[in-house]
Amino acid sequence: MAPSTEAQGLTPLAAAWRMLRLLGHVVHGLWQLHTSFPRATPEVQTDMVRQWSRRMLDSLGIALHAQPAPQWPTHQGVLVVINHISWLDILVLNAVHPMQFVAKDDIQRWPLIGRLVAASGTLFIRRRSARDALRVVQTMAQALRAGARVAVFPEGTTSNGEAVLPFHGNLLQAALDAQVPVMPVGLGYWQLAGQGRSAAVRYIDDDTLLGSIWRTLRHGPVLARVVFGPPQTANGQTRRQWAHALQAQVQQFLQLGV
Q: pTM of the predicted model, to two decimals?
């Protein structure tokens, strides 16, 4: 379904008030990061990240619908591959179940949010650096062998949410090395007050982070839809072949209305 025009749902004053609430929640997260979070057990930390992410989405006026329940492999790690649309994607997935993300090192420099993303265990990769990509793959494989759930955006950049860009297979090497399955996940954002996909939350082309946040606050409400596919193994495929097959599955999720 093609995106429709979205009317600005909030006045600048109402959006500014929502922005203040958002900043307050971010500051509270930073306070937790330096107080209770370091002393918590891994299970409690996971729940703290999930609850903080859910409240963050609520502050932004974003509802969440995830289906079906993820079929997490037992007694082993899993690599999660997701299509990439917005800076919101990490929040959305963490609101369902926190996992260790691989993201571009630009995020580390984001005001306030960068520190929170880093504290959640995100692995940062430098753009266009083959040596750094090898380092990240090795670190990912180690985490996967230890039973971690690691998430990547194999498109390497954000799309408009209408179609999935080609998947790069480089990071799939970590799953091959660790001999763990890969779970394809489809993600989409939809208007609640109208029909069609939401363009307000996109983070593409010349968008700035603050500009995208402000547009998201002004437009609303939005529904984030997430679909989890079953975990799968390579079954003899090369990483390039596997990447192509995974891309086709995620594209199918979008065609079915994700």
A: 0.90
